[in-house]
Design a protein that fits this description.
It contains twelve helices and seven strands. The protein has about 325 residues and is α/β, with parallel strands linked by helices. The chain has a single domain, classed as Rossmann fold. It has a seven-stranded parallel beta sheet, sandwiched between helices.
């Protein structure tokens, strides 16, 4: 018996509009490529030449907030608060005298660590003010952070207050979080893949400032130190570790050298700084010598880098 004539089919979705495919394991390669290509296109449109990256804890707050009341987060980057027992003492609890020793210590630490928020904010402002005076049509040494609260917010805030652009490279996490409000809207990014986010931290960076932080800060700091140590970066990277009193209690880098785990000369890959003024002078000197003096790095260009289409010419036809 003959089969009935099938009904007319609707047009199949274009592959690049097929969300089911793009979100599937088979579409993973295209998702990774998008997290390379889409940021590159935006950086070119915004004329971003290079960056200075700020790392540091998501948990530190501005001094006025820490002095008044601080709410610690449940997780790094989360908008959900930690349990009440893990929160610093509030001013009311201190006044009533019913705060636990743990809460009192956390409250004191919150005020102490707020210094680093204010220092990051000031340093980012000083760097941005200076970078805006540099010649050329592209933006140099743009302040870049992980896009969240804490030290990241402080860095973006300092650049914003100085009237410059700033970049936020956020990461999509399984709990609620959001970018800080001081990022330049056109330079607000969110990544799915940690390794693509790390790529953009390293690719454009000419300097790194590492403020006190936790697991994430340590991970990012040692990633870039390793790239610099192994000469995988085709540029001179200035790495400043901010706050020696904090960091020398957290990690003993001299011991690594003394035990032979790293070379003695590897200690020259970074330097400790402890004030915004000291950090700014180190950044300004290193960036000028390595990336602004003709013959010692990239000269300041007058025009943006050519796109692939402009380099390859009319053989590549424009598409709608």
């Amino acid at each position: 018996m003959p089969r009935p004539k099938p009904e007319r089919l609707e047009s199949a979705p274009l592959a690049y509009e097929n969300s089911e495919f793009l979100k599937s394991p088979d579409g993973r390669l295209f998702r990774m490529m998008a997290e390379y290509s889409e940021p590159m296109a935006r950086f070119r449109r915004q004329r971003i030449e290079d960056t200075v990256v700020f790392f540091g804890s998501v948990r530190f707050r501005a001094l006025d907030e820490a002095s008044h009341a601080l709410q610690l987060l449940e997780n790094t980057g989360s908008a959900a608060p930690a349990p009440d027992s893990e929160q610093p003492a509030s001013p009311d609890e201190v006044e009533r005298g019913d705060a636990s020793d743990v809460k009192l210590r956390l409250a004191a630490a919150a005020v102490e660590m707020a210094r680093y928020y204010e220092d990051a904010r000031k340093l980012a402002g000083m760097l941005t003010t200076w970078s805006k005076t540099l010649p050329g049509r592209r933006h140099r040494f743009v302040v870049t952070s992980g896009g969240g609260p804490g030290i990241m917010e402080a860095a973006n805030r300092g650049a914003y207050e100085a009237g410059g652009k700033s970049i936020g490279l956020n990461i999509k996490l399984p709990f609620e979080q959001c970018p800080n409000p001081y990022i330049t809207p056109e330079l607000n990014f969110e990544f799915h893949y940690f390794f693509m986010r790390k790529y953009w931290f390293a690719y454009l960076a000419k300097a790194l400032v590492v403020f006190p932080g936790g697991f994430g800060t340590l991970d990012e700091m040692f990633e870039l130190l390793t790239l610099s140590q192994t000469h995988k970066l085709a540029k001179k990277m200035i790495i400043l570790i901010y706050g020696p009193d904090y960091w020398k209690n957290v990690i003993n880098l001299n011991l690594l050298a003394e035990k032979g785990a790293i070379a003695m000369k590897d200690r020259d890959l970074f330097q400790y700084v402890d004030t915004p003024e000291e950090a700014f002078e180190a950044l300004k000197a290193g960036l000028t010598e390595n990336h602004l003096v003709p013959g010692r790095g990239e000269e300041v260009p007058e025009t943006p880098e050519l796109s692939a289409q402009e380099m390859l010419g009319p053989d590549i036809a424009k598409t709608l």
